[in-house]
Amino acid sequence: MIALVLALGSSLAYGCADFLGGLGARKAHVLRTVMVAAPASLAVELLLWPVLGASFSPAALGWGAVSGVASAAAFALLYRTLAIGPMNVLSPVTALVSAALPVGVGLLQGEHLGVAGLLGLPLALAAVVLVSAGHGAGAARPSRTALLLALGAGAAIALQLIFLHQAPSDSGVAPLITGRAVSSAVTLAAAGLMRRKLGPEQPAYGLSAAAGVLDSLANLLFLLAARSGDLTVVAVITALYPAGTVLLARGVLAERIARGQFVGLGTAAVAVSLLALT
């Protein structure tokens, strides 16, 4: 139950972070947004170090570093995806990929689900799609480029979560700090190489920093959830983050919410209840 609550908190934080990051990427080049978001996220994790502790073992450093590379790719791909839009179509594509890959890894590593879990898992995956599908009359259709970016973003997010899960359970926030330091360095290096292509627009500092802070909180909650529960369950619950993105997109951007999305929210509630019984 603790793992589920933490995973739900992670999902909510990811959804809010993605919405703010997507808005920020509409105002300036996506790398300018990530240049603010990634260091802001690192600052939060450094502040958590004295509170939660950190053990920088070789394994923690290694898994943290590769998660950081995946995180940098996820930041850029996801924010660019959401900037192109429509958010309520592309978000579930990203979420489904980010859920399916960790589920496969968890099952391959020998995790087992009870009857309730076997029912709840496919329901949760269905909810991930339904909750932000956005299909229906008048719904905007994404371009092929946007769909490819969404698939890439989902894969990068999945790899980040898988790598964080592999880090030693007694390493504290060391994998998060290492990962964010690497992702910040990769982002800044990429921005330096592409500085002539970034354009004159200044990033939305407030939106970008807030996205980074929320992303850091989401990573922390996921790490704690994965350490106290199964990756198979935690990853699927975390992947329900499009609910937050879509509801914010509806309230702030007036994007339509289809009837199927409301069905998805109900399906998600049933799925979480079943997974809680696992």
Task: Please write out the topology.
Elements: H1 2-27, H2 30-52, H3 58-84, H4 87-108, H5 115-130, H6 144-166, H7 174-193, H8 205-228, H9 231-238, H10 242-253, H11 259-276
Helix pairs in contact: 1-2, 1-3, 1-8, 1-9, 1-10, 2-3, 2-7, 2-8, 3-4, 3-6, 3-7, 4-5, 4-6, 4-9, 4-10, 5-9, 5-11, 8-9
Characteristics of this structure?
single chain, 278 residues, 11 helices, mainly alpha
What does this structure look like?
The structure is a single chain. The protein starts with a helix and ends with a helix. Helix 2 (30-52) runs antiparallel to helix 7 (174-193), helix 4 (87-108) runs parallel beside helix 6 (144-166) and helix 5 (115-130) packs parallel to helix 9. It has helices at 2-27, 30-52, 58-84, 87-108, 115-130, 144-166, 174-193, 205-228, 231-238, 242-253, 259-276. Helix content is 79%, strand content 0%.
